[in-house]
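Give me structure tokens for this 116-residue protein.
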Amino acid sequence: CITNIKAILSAAGSDISRVIKTTVFLTDMKNFQEVNGEYERHFGFGGDGGGGGGGGGERGKVMPARSCIAVRELPKGCEVEIECVALPGVGSGGGTGAGAAGDVEEEAARRAMGGH
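Here you go.
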């Protein structure tokens, strides 16, 4: 999921350090700890902000707002789906404009949750 989100954000002119809100959907809350560990690795305090490639430690000390929702079923038999809203631009000096944030969210919602 998160690798796909990074690719979509990049294609939309943003990056993982610009994510301000995520919604995690789980088909089994027993998977929460494992998912949370991966989430913190990519979005968390002192993490690499996204691993090899851009992002670095730019996130700083603020993680994006997050909701976690248990659902009965997800498309294509997925167990986890992550939706995100990101600001436009790359890194902390990125662009401005409310419209672009909505574009990134729409693109991420449309493409990121296809079962990866």
